Structures are given as structure tokens and as C-alpha cells.
């Protein structure tokens, strides 16, 4: 569980654990009292809720923007698109979503009837599409975890040894080749919907298992849990489809709620887009149209983050990156350096070379720790986003359903 | 003196360590104990001096390494699989064991130049040996799997194999035939016979037992030599593929959430059927078999076993759970209830398996995930009931059902609830899950039969019945004729009670509820009587006031009025529908009892007047028999075309 401060906003609406039945009875009873009464009660709160939501989104995105900007100079761990930063992004999503939920459920009498109800169901539909992105990202995290395991073998081979001999380097080299193949394989699927024909079992080498036989590619990467035709790029487009800022008459007709719905839609799209940008998944494609009116208080940081991620993507996707995550770049860099080193190294190892190797191994050890410590919480958080989306949608559908009782 | 004494001590310590340590590889530990015991026995002091002082020992080490190099390189360079010959493989393993113990024994003395150089050679040799055993390990895994598939397809006969849904693919079989002839083929107690799918309580040996022993021997060396990660990786990726293959043989597709949402319900139903089978096969056969295999291959290394097992099952389990999740998130259309109940029940019934097979620290998250999704299916089912409520609520009156007959919604809802209550226990569980404290005034009907507090499902069902009745009442308003209105309520009320009575729904709602609703039907019956026949009977009343002067004329007038009313009522009511035979009979009797005695009395009275008596036939249009015949002609069985199901 990420450490977030949802408690503040969570108290404003019925807790989830409450009985649907008793909740419904309240609803039925309240139907007997004039709707206007209800309406009137919450009219002042609505504006406060809407403002607080916008402020939450703006604060969070300013924070994401400024921490990733300042990071270049100070702490590298909060670097844009690092695991830590992505976790912060997901945290932001969870908070915004929670605040949005408060807007919806504090103002149910307005929200769950026309014309707002249609917009709200539209949001739920988009958010369901995000669930597949979450699942794909989860696969991607598992993918990174596999690479991390190979790095650990490299570390195991070269770390903590009294002496560095040829054997250890061969062992490291083998793991590095497996790593390179695993990442290459990943690039295939990251950039196009690859039709990787994985025949099950028994390939090659039934006869030869000679000395120089390298089990190249034995480290078969994982397969995705979604079908091969699934595409992250298409999924993102579906989330962003027909997403446009509300017109003035819509804003008026909805007492401003339309703005909140649009904001939440955009946050959803941005967060999913950034996840796909950062983490390996099938058919990564970032060509999603963002139209963000600059009048929103959160627009500037979001647009800026969007641009910076796009730049990063242009820089790195030319080299066919399988994800813009900082740690992936570090893995790539490390495996390149290490491969060069293992190719060029002479035995017995000269002292200066050994010092160099030990230095790199130390860095590798740090990288392994970062990944190791980062991935599990990241995966849990992606899962949490998934659950939160489902829960909020379930509640929403319940409320929309109940609202029909009134008709 | 002191100097000399210390030297002596160190020499003794070294001697002890060496003599003891040589045999059982405890030298390092012993030295460690010494150094902890007394500062004078520092590790450097103890180890440094070995080489320095004992060149003969170093020479022996070099000899050993040389011999091991000769032995091991012979296997490392072999161009055929080593494990086909058990003599070869055990000699190879012995050599590795010696290498491992040599490295361990001499590592504390690595500070010495010669020893250090020897250790580098030993490590190098170790790496080569490990690469080779890793290859052999993989080969054994793959070959073992092959021979299994073979015997599954041919050894046990196609029929029983088919029961496990491991429909084998001809191409692969042919390929596999070509690859036979490996493994120490004598004593494999191969897979047990596949039994019919209803019996899931079998654990298969995924690999022949001889192969498992071989794998264990290799794994043991790899883990001890710190190559455990490689071993675990090879193991997991091979088994993972095996599982994936098994899944595709169970014809389970990989579906995204969205694909599940968009799927036609019928296709999804089929997919759910396959999923149920696959989930059972996976949790009851495949995963426990994997667990067993893993525990045997990594026997003695529980952490490596747990981690490898998680790696093997993770993907398949998530795939299974994702599908169930997608089903839970999907449409809440009421017709989906029954299939989603199946999914819920499948997961529920598999919970003990999830608990037992995923109990270790690495797999715990899979178990928790399963619980989460299982609960979510419960929520989905509650959502479906909510949707049912909405459907009832929103069902518009539209046109009246002809003759006040049975409304399709009554049929639909009652049959739906009856069918749902066949899964009563599951539903109780689902609704209990989410129940908060319910104040007793919250549900109508007061106490339960047994005096206990009501179940949440009871409250839910009472609520739906209430909604249905409210909706029917609204629908009854479209009838202009109050009698017709009552007949409509009577018919539908009767149907409801009837459907409740002889089903699980009845035992759920209880006697009290049934009594109350039977009374309601009687109330509608009374209303019907009042609104149609009371007026007719009223005409026949002979009170004192009517016995005034012009009695005869008044009576004649009354008779005329009676005829008129009776004809009117008869005309409107001959089209009435009473679907229930018994009720139709009862109703006719009721009307007869109401009307006939009064009519007979009236006629008798009329006959007592001589001036009327003569022309009686002229006035009496209907004899009592005619009335009875007409009444028995009232009410039809059904309203023609309106009886279709919704």
C-alpha cells in the first residue's frame, strides 16, 4: 500500500463497507423528501468540492513536474520516468481519483441524473479501458523483473569474489547474452504487434550439447497475459477517443461538474499514457492526441511533462527502447558496458582493470537494489489503481442504477 | 616465551582444523571458531601460514585440481548427453562434489599465492562444469516432458487422455517419437492413468521419477556451488512452458478485459465453461503436481523450491484470475447471474486449493489475489440483483394484459427468482458478505418463522417482491374497470404465491410471508366481488322499505334492474382471464353462492304476488339454472396471445 493521504477526503461519503441494502433504503427514504431540499443542501458544497478537486490535480501535477525537473541536479532517483517517479504518478492518480469520487458521491443528486450521468458513465467506460493497460503494465513489470534476475546472476558471478577469473566472466557473459536477447525480444513486441511464434518445447539441439554450445535464447521471455493482437497504442487511443473539453453551455448545464469529469478523464489518459511510455508492453505507441486547454490550473505541468516524455521517447525510441523507464535505460547501459568489458578483458586481470570492474559491479549492485526495492511496490500500486478503478466504477454504477428508482 | 607459545597455539589450531576439516569440510568453520575464541587466532594468521609452511599440502592441492580438470573436462566436452549413462553421470557428479569440497576447504587459505592461483583454476573449472550440468538439466527437463506426453497419448489410450482435455496434437507426437531413447528408461513409474474429469483428485508425476532424481542431484550441486539462480531459471522457464501448453490444450484463450466485455454472451458462456474446467484442472491437478515436482527437484532447498514454483505458476494463475475478474467487471445483465454464480462457486470451492498450493511467502500474493477476485464476483452478483430491481422498477405499464391475466414480468421475475434460489446457499453467502446491521423495521414481514434475525438474502428477496408488487399495482391502474383491476392483481398475486410455495424461495420467504400474500390475494378477490357483484346482489335485497304499498311494481322494477346489471357484468366479465384452474372454480362457486340463494329467494318472493305470478315468465328472463350456467361460463383460462414469456 502506498502511503497516501486519502483519509481526508474519504470521510465525506459513505464508506464502501456499508450495506448496499441499508444504503438503498436511505436512498428510498430520501426520495420521499423533495429532491430540491437535498439539492439546496449540497449546492454550496459542490463548488467547494469542485475547487478542491481542481486544486488537488494541479498540486499533484506541479509536484510531479517540479520534482522531476529539480531531480536532474539533486536526487537522481526522482528522475522523470524513474520507478520512484512513476510511483509518485500513480499516487497522484489515486489521490485525484479519490477526490473525484468525493465530487461524485457528495453531489449524487446532481451527478446521477441527466445530463451529468451520461458524462459520468462515459468516464467509467474509459476507466474500464484503462484496466487492460494496468494488466499489460503488470506483465511489463514482470518482464523487468526477469531482466533483473539476469542482472543478479551477473552480480553473483562478479561480486564478492576474492579474485575475478575467466570462469566468473564467462558466467557473467552468458547472463548478459540472455539479457540482451530477452530485451531484444521485448523490443519486437514493444514496437509492433509481433507474431512471435512460440512453438512449445523441443527446438533445436537434440543431438549436440557440446562444449561451445551456447544456449542462446534459452531464456525465453515471458508471454503476455493478453492476446497477441492486443495493442497498448490502440487501447490508449480508445481511452482518449472523443475526449474534448466541455463547452460553456455544458459547463453551465452541469453546474461545472463537466469540468471535473473532463479533468479526471485527462488525468486517466495521461497516467495510462505515461505508464505505457515507461514500461514494456505489447505494441507501445505514444501517438495519442492530448488537447488540454491552458486555462486549467494543472494544464501547464501536464503539458510540460507530456512534451518532455515525448522528447525522451524520440531520443530513445529511435534506438528501439522497450520502455522509457530510467532503470531500463540503466540496464541497457550497464549491459552494454559490461558486455564490452567482458569482451575486452584479458586474463589474468590487471589491477587497474580489476578496480574498474569492481566499480561497475558496485554500480550494478546499486541498480539491482533500486529495481528490487522498486518493482514490488510499483506492481502493488498498479494493482491498487486497477482495484480503485473497479471499485469506483462499481459504486458509480450502483448509484446510477439507484437514480433510476426515482424515475 | 609468549611469542613462542602463540606460534605453537596457531600451529595446533591449524593442525586440528586440517585433520578434522579434510574429511568433513568443516575446516573453515573450525578456523572461524578458533578466531572467535581468541584474538590470537586471527583468520589471516591461520590461513596465511598454511601455504607458507606447508608446500606439500599445496602440491597436493595442485594435484587434486589437475586430476579434477582431467575428469571434468572430459564431461564438459562430451558431444552426447551425459545423463544417458548413469555411470557417467554419477562419476561427473562425484568429480563436482570433490571440486566443491576442495574449493570450500581451501578458500580460507586463499591469501596464499599458490593456493589462490589454484582456486582461480578451480573456480574456472567449476563454471565450466556448471554450464554443462545446466545444459544437462535442461535436456532432462525437456526430454522428461516428452516421454510423458508420449505415454499420455499412447500409453494410456487416447480415450482416457482425452478426458483430461489434453487433446494431443498429431504433429507434436510425431516429432516426439523421433526424440525418444533418452533417460534411464527402466523404472519410470510414469503418469497415472488419467481419470474422468469429475475426479480432480489426482496429482500427476509431470516427469518420470528417475528423471526427477537426476534433476535433484544436479540442482543440489548447482545450489551449493552458488549457481542456484541459473538452475531455478532453467527449471521455471521449462515448466512454465509446459503449463502454458497445458492451458492451450484446455482451449483457454488469452482475453483482455475489453475482449471479454465485447464478447457475445453465448460465446462468453462457452468460454466460462472452459474456464471452469481449466481452473479445476489447474488448481487440483496441474499446480499441485508442479508443487510436488518442484519440492522433489529442490528437495532440501525450500526457498529455491518456493521461488521456482512461484515463477512456474505465476503467469498461468494470473491468466486464470484475470478472466474471472473480467467476468466480474462485465455487464450486470440479469441473465448472466447463473453463469457468474458458476464462476463464483468454482473459485469458492477452489479456495482450499489456493490456500494449500500458494501458502509460501512468494505465492501468498496469488492467493490474496484469488480472494479479492472471488469477493468481486460476489459484488458482481449483488450488482446483478440491483440491475434486476432496476429492470422491475423501470418496466413501464404499456398496454393492459387482456382480461386482467398474468403479466409477463410476473412470470419472468418469479421464474428467475426460483431458479436463483436453487443456489440459495451461495446467495446467502454473497449477501451476508456485504450485510451491515439491519434494523428490524427495515424489512416488512416482521419476525421470521424461527424468530431469528433475517438473512440478508431474505431481505433482498422480500425487497424484490415488494418492487414487483408495486410495479404490478402501477400496471393495474391502466384498467378502467375496477373489477378487471382486481382480477389482474388477483391473477398475478396468485401466481406469485403459487411459485413461491413449492420452491426454495418459499422456505426462504417463510410461512408468514406466504400467509400474508395469500391474504392479499383474498383481499383482491373481495375487492373484485365488491366492485362487480355486490351491486347486482344489492338489487335483490328485500328490506322492510321495499315492502311498502306498490310492492309488486317495485319488485318488477328490481328484477328488470337485476337483468340489466347481470347482463352488463356478464358481458364485461366473460372475457376475464383466470389462469388458475382452482381459482377459477373457486371464483365461480363464490359468485354462485353469492347470487343464487338471493336470486332464488327473490324469485320465490315474486311468485307470492298473484298479479305478478301470472305473468312471471314474461318478467323472469333467467331462471336460476340459467344464472348458474352463465356464471360457470365466466372466466377464461388464458388471455390468448398475451401469455408469452418476457
From TrEMBL, chain A:
Membrane topology, as annotated? Single-pass membrane protein
Gene Ontology CC entries for this record = membrane
InterPro entries linked: ROH1-like
Q: Which residues cross the membrane?
A: 257-279
Q: Does the keyword NAD apply?
A: no
**Where is it mainly found?**
membrane
Locations listed in the record: Membrane
Q: Which keywords are on file for this protein?
A: Membrane, Transmembrane, Transmembrane helix
The answer to keyword Transmembrane applying to this record is yes
Alphabetized PANTHER family for the sequence: BPS1-LIKE PROTEIN
Q: Which family does it belong to?
A: Belongs to the ROH1 family.
The name under which this protein is listed is Uncharacterized protein
Give the source species.
Answer: Ziziphus jujuba var. spinosa
From TrEMBL, chain B:
Q: Which UniProt keywords apply?
A: Exocytosis, Protein transport, Transport
Which stretches does UniProt call biased (Acidic residues)? 167-176
Superkingdom of this protein's organism? Eukaryota
Which Gene Ontology molecular-function terms are recorded? phosphatidylinositol-4,5-bisphosphate binding
Entry annotated with the keyword Protein transport: yes
**Which SUPFAM superfamilies does this one have?**
Cullin repeat-like
Residue ranges of domain Exocyst complex subunit Exo70 C-terminal in the record: 274-633
Query: Record's Gene Ontology CC terms?
Result: exocyst
- Stretches the record annotates as Disordered: 152-190
Q: Does the keyword Transport apply?
A: yes
Looking at the Swiss-Prot or TrEMBL record, what is one Pfam family this protein matches? Exo70_N
- Gene3D superfamilies assigned: Exocyst complex component Exo70
Recorded hits in InterPro entries, A to Z, give: Cullin_repeat-like_dom_sf, Exo70, Exo70_C
Q: Which GO terms describe its biological process?
A: exocytosis; protein transport
Summarizing the function annotation, the protein's role is:
Component of the exocyst complex.
Entry's PANTHER family? EXOCYST COMPLEX COMPONENT EXO70B1, EXOCYST COMPLEX PROTEIN EXO70
Q: Which family does it belong to?
A: Belongs to the EXO70 family.
| Name used for this protein in its record | Exocyst subunit Exo70 family protein
* Organism of derivation: Ziziphus jujuba
Amino acid at each position: 500500500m502506498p502511503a497516501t493521504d486519502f483519509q481526508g477526503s474519504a470521510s465525506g461519503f459513505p464508506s464502501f463497507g456499508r450495506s448496499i441494502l441499508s444504503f438503498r433504503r436511505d436512498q428510498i427514504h430520501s426520495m420521499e423528501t423533495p429532491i430540491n431540499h437535498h439539492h439546496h443542501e449540497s449546492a454550496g458544497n459542490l463548488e467547494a468540492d469542485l475547487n478542491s478537486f481542481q486544486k488537488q490535480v494541479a498540486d499533484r501535477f506541479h509536484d510531479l513536474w517540479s520534482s522531476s525537473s529539480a531531480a536532474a541536479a539533486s536526487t537522481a532517483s526522482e528522475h522523470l520516468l524513474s520507478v520512484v517517479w512513476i510511483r509518485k504518478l500513480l499516487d497522484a492518480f489515486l489521490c485525484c481519483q479519490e477526490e473525484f469520487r468525493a465530487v461524485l458521491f457528495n453531489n449524487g443528486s446532481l451527478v446521477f441524473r441527466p445530463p451529468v450521468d451520461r458524462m459520468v458513465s462515459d468516464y467509467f467506460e474509459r476507466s474500464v479501458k484503462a484496466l487492460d493497460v494496468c494488466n499489460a503494465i503488470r506483465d511489463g513489470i514482470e518482464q523487468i523483473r526477469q531482466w533483473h534476475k539476469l542482472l543478479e546472476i551477473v552480480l553473483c558471478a562478479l561480486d564478492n569474489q576474492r579474485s575475478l577469473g575467466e570462469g566468473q566472466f564467462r558466467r557473467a557473459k552468458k547472463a548478459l547474452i540472455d539479457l540482451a536477447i530477452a530485451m531484444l525480444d521485448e523490443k519486437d513486441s514493444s514496437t509492433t504487434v509481433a507474431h512471435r511464434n512460440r512453438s512449445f518445447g523441443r527446438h533445436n539441439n537434440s543431438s549436440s550439447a557440446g562444449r561451445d554450445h551456447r544456449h542462446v535464447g534459452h531464456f525465453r521471455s515471458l508471454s503476455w497475459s493478453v492476446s497477441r493482437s492486443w495493442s497498448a497504442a490502440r487501447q490508449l487511443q480508445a481511452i482518449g477517443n472523443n475526449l474534448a473539453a466541455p463547452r460553456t453551455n455544458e459547463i453551465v448545464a452541469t453546474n461545472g461538474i463537466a469540468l471535473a469529469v473532463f479533468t479526471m478523464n485527462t488525468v486517466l489518459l495521461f497516467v495510462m499514457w505515461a505508464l505505457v511510455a515507461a514500461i514494456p508492453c505489447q505494441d507501445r505507441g505514444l501517438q495519442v492526441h492530448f488537447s488540454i486547454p491552458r486555462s486549467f490550473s494543472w494544464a501547464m505541468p501536464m503539458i510540460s511533462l507530456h512534451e518532455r516524455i515525448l522528447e525522451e521517447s524520440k531520443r530513445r525510441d529511435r534506438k528501439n527502447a522497450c520502455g522509457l523507464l530510467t532503470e531500463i535505460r540503466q540496464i541497457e547501459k550497464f549491459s552494454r558496458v559490461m558486455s564490452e568489458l567482458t569482451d575486452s578483458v584479458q586474463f589474468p586481470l590487471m589491477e587497474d582493470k580489476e578496480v574498474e570492474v569492481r566499480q561497475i559491479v558496485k554500480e550494478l549492485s546499486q541498480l539491482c537494489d533500486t529495481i528490487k526495492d522498486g518493482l514490488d511496490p510499483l506492481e502493488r500500486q498498479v494493482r491498487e489503481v486497477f482495484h480503485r478503478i473497479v471499485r469506483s466504477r462499481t459504486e458509480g454504477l450502483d448509484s446510477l442504477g439507484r437514480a433510476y428508482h426515482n424515475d | 616465551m609468549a611469542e613462542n607459545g602463540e606460534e605453537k597455539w596457531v600451529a595446533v589450531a591449524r593442525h586440528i582444523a586440517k585433520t578434522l576439516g579434510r574429511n568433513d569440510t568443516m575446516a573453515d568453520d573450525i578456523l572461524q571458531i578458533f578466531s572467535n575464541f581468541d584474538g590470537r587466532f586471527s583468520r589471516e594468521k591461520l590461513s596465511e601460514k598454511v601455504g607458507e609452511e606447508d608446500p606439500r599440502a599445496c602440491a597436493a592441492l595442485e594435484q587434486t585440481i589437475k586430476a579434477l580438470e582431467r575428469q571434468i573436462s572430459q564431461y564438459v566436452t562430451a558431444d552426447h548427453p551425459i545423463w544417458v549413462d548413469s555411470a557417467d553421470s554419477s562419476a561427473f557428479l562425484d568429480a563436482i562434489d570433490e571440486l566443491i569440497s576442495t574449493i570450500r576447504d581451501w578458500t580460507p587459505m586463499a591469501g596464499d599465492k599458490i593456493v589462490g592461483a589454484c582456486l582461480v583454476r578451480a573456480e574456472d573449472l567449476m563454471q565450466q562444469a556448471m554450464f554443462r550440468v545446466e545444459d544437462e538439466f535442461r535436456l532432462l527437463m525437456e526430454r522428461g516432458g516428452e516421454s510423458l506426453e508420449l505415454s499420455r497419448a499412447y500409453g494410456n489410450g487416447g480415450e482416457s487422455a482425452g478426458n483430461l482435455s489434453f487433446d494431443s496434437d498429431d504433429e507434436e507426437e510425431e516429432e516426439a517419437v523421433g526424440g525418444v531413447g533418452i533417460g534411464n528408461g527402466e523404472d519410470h513409474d510414469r503418469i497415472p492413468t488419467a481419470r474422468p474429469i469429475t475426479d480432480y483428485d489426482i496429482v500427476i508425476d509431470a516427469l518420470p521419477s528417475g528423471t526427477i532424481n537426476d534433476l535433484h542431484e544436479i540442482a543440489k550441486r548447482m545450489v551449493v556451488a552458488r549457481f542456484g539462480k541459473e538452475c531455478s531459471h532453467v527449471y521455471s522457464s521449462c515448466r512454465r512452458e509446459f503449463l502454458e501448453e497445458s492451458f492451450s490444450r484446455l482451449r483457454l484463450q488469452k482475453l483482455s478485459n475489453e475482449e471479454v466485455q465485447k464478447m457475445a454472451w453465448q460465446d462468453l458462456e462457452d468460454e466460462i465453461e472452459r474456464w471452469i474446467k481449466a481452473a479445476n484442472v489447474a488448481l487440483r491437478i496441474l499446480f499441485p503436481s508442479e508443487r510436488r515436482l518442484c519440492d522433489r527437484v529442490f528437495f532440501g532447498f525450500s526457498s529455491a523450491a518456493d521461488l521456482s514454483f512461484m515463477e512456474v505458476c505465476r503467469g498461468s494463475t494470473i491468466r486464470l484470475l484475470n478472466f474471472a475478474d473480467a467476468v466480474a467487471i462485465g455487464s450486470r445483465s440479469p441473465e448472466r447471474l447463473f453463469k457468474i454464480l458458476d464462476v463464483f462457486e468454482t473459485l469458492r470451492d477452489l479456495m482450499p486449493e489456493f490456500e494449500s498450493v500458494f501458502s509460501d511467502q512468494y505465492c501468498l500474493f496469488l492467493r490474496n489475489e484469488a480472494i479479492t477476485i472471488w469477493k468481486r464476483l460476489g459484488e458482481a452478483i449483488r450488482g446483478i440483483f440491483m440491475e434486476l430491481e432496476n429492470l422491475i422498477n423501470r418496466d413501464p405499464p404499456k398496454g393492459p394484459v387482456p382480461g386482467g391475466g398474468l403479466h409477463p414480468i410476473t412470470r419472468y421475475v418469479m421464474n428467475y427468482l426460483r431458479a436463483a434460489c436453487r443456489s440459495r446457499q451461495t446467495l446467502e453467502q454473497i449477501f451476508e458478505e456485504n450485510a451491515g446491521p439491519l434494523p428490524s423495521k427495515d424489512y416488512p414481514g416482521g419476525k421470521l418463522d424461527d424468530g431469528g434475525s433475517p438473512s440478508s438474502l431474505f431481505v433482498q428477496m422480500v425487497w424484490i417482491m415488494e418492487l414487483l408488487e408495486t410495479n404490478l399495482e402501477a400496471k393495474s391502474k391502466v384498467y378502467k374497470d375496477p373489477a378487471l383491476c382486481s382480477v389482474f392483481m388477483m391473477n398475478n398475486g396468485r401466481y406469485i404465491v403459487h411459485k413461491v410455495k413449492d420452491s426454495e424461495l418459499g422456505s426462504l420467504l417463510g410461512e408468514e410471508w406466504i400467509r400474508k400474500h395469500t391474504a392479499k390475494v383474498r383481499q383482491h378477490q373481495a375487492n373484485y366481488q365488491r366492485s362487480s357483484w355486490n351491486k347486482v346482489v344489492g338489487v335483490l335485497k328485500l328490506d322492510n322499505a321495499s315492502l311498502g304499498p306498490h310492492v309488486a311494481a317495485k319488485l318488477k322494477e328490481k328484477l328488470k334492474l337485476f337483468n340489466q346489471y347481470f347482463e352488463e357484468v356478464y358481458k364485461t366479465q366473460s372475457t376475464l382471464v383466470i389462469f388458475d384452474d382452482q381459482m377459477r372454480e373457486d371464483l365461480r362457486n363464490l359468485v354462485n353462492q353469492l347470487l343464487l340463494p338471493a336470486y332464488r329467494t327473490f324469485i320465490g318472493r315474486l311468485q307470492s304476488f298473484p298479479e305478478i305470478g301470472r305473468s312471471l315468465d314474461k318478467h323472469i328472463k333467467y331462471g336460476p339454472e340459467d344464472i348458474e350456467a352463465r356464471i360457470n361460463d365466466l372466466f377464461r383460462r388464458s388471455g390468448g396471445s398475451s401469455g408469452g414469456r418476457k
